Amino acid sequence: MLTRRRLLAVSAGSVLASRLVGNGARAEKSLDWPSRVVRVIVPVAAGGPTDTGARVLAEQLAKIWGHQVVVENKGGAGTNLGNETVARSDPDGYTVLYATSSLAVNRSLYRSLSYDALADLAPVSLVAKFPLFMFVPNSSPAKSVMEFISYAKAHPGKMTLGSPGTGSAPHLAGELFRQMAKIEMAHVPYRGAAPALNDLIPGRIDCYFGSGSLLENMRAGQIRGLGVTGSKRESVVPELPTIAEAGVPGYEASSWHALFVPAKTPPEIVRKMSADSIEALADPAARGKLEQYGYTVVGSSPGELQALLRSEIDKWSAVIKTVGININ
């Protein structure tokens, strides 16, 4: 029974809780952070869409924080060099990782790593998710996903899958497709997307799963797009079906970018950084620039990003184990 005394106690508790929440929010706003330059480590080379996305976000965060946000590219070792740099940095909120989906993949891909994505890094916010696209040369007889599968089955052992590197998102998207479509394709790794594209255009490789940046090549008539790896069609190319609807039910492979900081970074800094990142991504100009690259801008809480990382680790570890990929 809710007596008058109990009602007063509950009301007093509610008022106290509201005050505590309000005080907590004001405390985070009054944090003396950032009080100097913040470094954003991008674990890939400068100039690509990942680097561009990081710079768009950094520019917006600098406006919010009133301090310079410097992007540093530390490419190498399949993003592990940049990932480790942040994992081993001081947990003070001044070194941030602009992570790619390789953070989840590398845990199973490499025999040994000097950092643990789950233990050594703290999630801040998801930045964007984006699909890849299945491309073939114009000389390919396949005009659809099912025609490609039929042709591959009629020519076993003769089809090739190009990628910008072993264990990269395009490689794993292609391997997942190969498994689910039950076809054979020999993997041909390149040192980046540009040389792979140079061999795709004249037909020296039969298939390539690439980012939205290659849609310009498709529109220019240099290559042919067959499908989207995501769970839905993309508004930038509504004519391309998802691979799932085109004949491989259940297929889905999306990539993502997100912010992480070193583990043990103070929770109040992580919360503020997450909230400010969501605010930055809501800016129409910043969002528009990111969407030009086919990114779906998605801010998130640290908990939501942690759940995504764990699910991606589970998904790709199964693919890597089945394919038998390992890098020393």
Using brief descriptors, characterize the structure shown.
2 domains, disordered N terminus, 328 residues, D-Maltodextrin-Binding Protein, domain 2, 43% helix, 5-stranded mixed sheet, alpha/beta
SSE order and pairing:
Elements: H1 4-29, E1 38-42, H2 49-65, E2 69-73, H3 80-87, E3 95-100, H4 102-109, E4 121-131, E5 133-137, H5 145-154, E6 160-163, H6 169-181, E7 186-189, H7 193-200, E8 207-210, H8 215-219, E9 223-228, E10 254-262, H9 267-281, H10 284-291, E11 296-297, H11 302-323
Parallel strand pairs: 1-2, 1-3, 6-7, 6-8
Antiparallel strand pairs: 3-10, 4-10, 4-11, 5-8, 5-9
Structural features, described:
The protein is α/β, with parallel strands linked by helices and 328 residues long. It folds into 2 domains: 38-130 and 255-323, D-Maltodextrin-Binding Protein, domain 2; 133-228, D-Maltodextrin-Binding Protein, domain 2 (3-Layer(aba) Sandwich). The chain is 43% helix and 19% strand. It is built from 11 helices and 11 strands. The strands form 2 sheets. The protein has a 6-stranded mixed sheet with strand order 2-1-3-10-4-11, with helices on both faces. Helix 4 packs across helix 11 (302-323).
